[in-house]
Amino acid sequence: MAFARLHSRIFARQFASAADNHGKGDPTVLWRNLYLFVGIPATLLGLLNCYLSEQEHVKQEFIPYEHLRIRNKRFPWGDGQRSLFHNPHTNALPTGYEDE
């Protein structure tokens, strides 16, 4: 029984040490290179795609549909027509865009 435990410890140690020194080098170098040469360029390409798609964005014309922008109750701040996160360039009031 003691021989089996000793044998399993020796075998496990040799197996673990063999996996550790496989001759491939430091694994942190692989992940650093993946980050530098794959991760950063992929992020920059995503940013470029987002920027270019925003440049061709055209604001839709305002059509005063009756079912949109219904105000049954005024907002409790300002003049009561603008939401809390109102953007005058993208959010229309019931009468139209503010910058037109």
Contiguous low-pLDDT stretches (5 residues minimum) are none
Strand content: under 5%
Helix percent reads 40-55%
Rounded to an integer in angstroms, the radius of gyration calculated over CA atoms is 32 Å
Overall number of strands: 0
Describe the global form. elongated
Mean pLDDT: 82
- DSSP helix count? 2
Strand pairing plus helix content: what structural class?
Answer: mainly alpha
Distance between the ends: 89 Å
Main sheet attributes: strand count, strand direction, barrel closure:
none
Order of helix and strand elements from N to C terminus: HH
Structural write-up:
This is Cytochrome c oxidase subunit 6A1, mitochondrial-like. Belongs to the cytochrome c oxidase subunit 6A family. InterPro entries: Cyt_c_oxidase_su6a, Cyt_c_oxidase_su6a_sf. It comes from Polistes dominula. It is found in: Mitochondrion inner membrane. The protein has 100 residues and is an all-alpha fold. 48% of the residues lie in helices and 0% in strands. It has helices spanning 2-20, 27-55. The chain is elongated and about 85 Å long. The model has no long low-confidence stretch (mean pLDDT 82).
